[in-house]
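Re-run with default settings, no changes from the original entry. Doing this only to confirm the output is reproducible before filing.
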Amino acid sequence: MIKEVFGKKLGMTQLFNDNDEVVAVSVIAVEPNVVTQLRTTDTDGYEAVQLGFGAIKEHKVNKPMAGHFKKQGAPARRYLREVRVDAASDHKVGEEVGLSAFTDVKKVDVTGISKGKGFAGVMRRYGFAGGPGGHGAHFHRAPGSVGQCATPSRVFKGVRLPGHMGCDRVTVKNLEVVRIDEESNVILVKGAIPGGKNGIVRIRMA
């Protein structure tokens, strides 16, 4: 059984639950994912299926990918992702996986790429307190000491320093499924999920 699908984050909104309480929800569009390739232990050393999603015109597919789809006998898709399964032989190329598999699911894990923040200092990136704001201080937003002088004469790996912030793979677990609209191919989950609008996210049964 395939326990996850891929979709696109549309944004956030709010709705009322059965207790007339306002609930903030994330809206995810999930077009039917199509199985485009099977990975078996005999040929690849593991069991998985390749899912394709996002419609694309065939003339926009480059030659290597067009050859891949033709060899597998699968329809062209914009995005491809692999999903581990117990037995790939239980599935076939061209099989569609959609929100119907999540009808009885109460909670899901959502994985996406967080928004990029660019170059950030340690106060924003890691929440450092920083130095005094005034009174003649010359130490404000710098990270401070990052190591010793003579021994070991280097900065250890993993020291928290300024650098690129965001664009990380983030998973939010146990999000409540508020509503599923199979006609519109939309799922609403309670709370925020990683990434900006139109970002690709993975939805997995918790």
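The chain is about 10% helix and 40% strand. The domain at 31-97 is CATH 3.30.160.810 (Double Stranded RNA Binding Domain).
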